[in-house]
Amino acid sequence: MVKVLVIGAAGMIGRKLVDRLVKEQNLGGREIGELLLADVVAPSVPSGAPCPVETTACDFSLPGQAEALIAKRPEIIFHLAAIVSGEAEADFEKGYRINLHGTQRLFEAIRLAGDGYCPRVVFTSSIAVFGAPFPDPIPDEFHLTPLTSYGTQKAIGELLLADLTRRGMMNGIGIRLPTVVVRPGKPNAAASGFFSGIIREPLNGQEAQLPVGDDVLHWMASPRASVGFLIHAANMDGEKIGPRRSLTMPGLPVTVGEEIDSLRRIGGEERVKLIRREPDETVQRIVAGWPRQFDAARAKSLGFQADTSFDEIVRIYIEEEGINL
User: Fold this and answer.
1) What distance in Å separates the CA atoms of residue 284 and residue 304, rounded to the nearest whole number?
2) Is residue 320 a part of any domain in this protein?
3) Domain holding 174: CATH number?
4) Mean pLDDT across the stretch 219-234?
5) Most-buried pick from 21, 119, 146, 159 (CB within 10 A)?
6) What is the mean pLDDT of the chain?
7) pTM (2 decimals)?
8) Mean local confidence (pLDDT), 280-299
9) Cα–Cα nearest to 147, from 167, 161, 164, 126
10) How many domains, the chain?
11) Structural domain range at position 51
C-alpha cells in the first residue's frame, strides 16, 4: 500500500485529482492505503474513499508546517499549492512566500527527514517559466526565461527539484502545465482566467469579459488531461526522465477566436453574444510575453497524452459540471 499527500487539495485541480485517486484506488498498481490532504483551508473528505483520509488546514510556508505534512512519510507527494499568476504579480511578497518559500520549506523538510526517506514528488510548474523572445514552437531544450514573478518562482522550484533529485534526496518530476481550460467555479486572479471565462460564463448564461483580441494564441489543456498528467508522473519510472526533471506537457494551441467558434458550435450564437469585449492593457501586456505553443515531444515519448480538440475540452466541462444546454 502507498500513502499519498496532496498539498493544494482544496483547489480545482486538487479536488479533481483526489476524486480520480478515490475512483481508481491505486497508483502504479499499488493500492492507496491513506490519503493525506492539505491546503490553506481544510479540504473536503471525498465520498466513497476506500482508505483513511486525513485533512489538514495549514499554510505550508510557515515554520514547522511542512515537517508536519510529511510526518507520516507519504511515498507520493503532489505539490499543487500556489498563488496564481495575476495575484503573484500584484502581491510580490505573498507570491514569493507561497510559491517559492513554501516550496523551499517542503523540499527542505524532505531533505532533513532522514531514514532513507526519498518520496516521489510531483511538482506543478507552468509554461510561465518561458518568456519572449522565444521560437515558435518552443522545443524541449529551450532555456528558462520567465518574465513574471510567478514564472520566476516556478523556475526556481524546478531547479531545486532537480538538484535534490540529483543528490538522491527525493525522486522529483516537474510538470509544466498548459493553461487549464475550462476551469469550473468563479473567476480567479490568474491573468489567464479569461481563457476559461469566455466559455464558462456564457455556458452558464452570464456575461464574460474579453480583454484581448481574437488572434491571441495560447497553449491549453482540460482539467481532465491535467489530472492525467499528474497521475502519469506519479506512476512512471523516474529513470526514464534523466537529469532534466521538468517536462512541458502536451497541449493544444488555440486562439481566442477558435475558442469562440467552439462555443458557437456547441452552445449557439446566443451564448457567444454574452462575450463583452473590454480591452485591458495590463492583461494584454502580460499575455504578449507568454509562450504560445510547444514541441512537447519529450513528454509525449514518455506517455503523456493531450486533449484531441478544443471542442473536446468544452464538452468535458459540460459533462463534468452538469451544464444543461
Assistant:
1) 31
2) no
3) 3.40.50.720
4) 97
5) 21
6) 94
7) 0.94
8) 88
9) 126
10) 1
11) 2-178+223-248
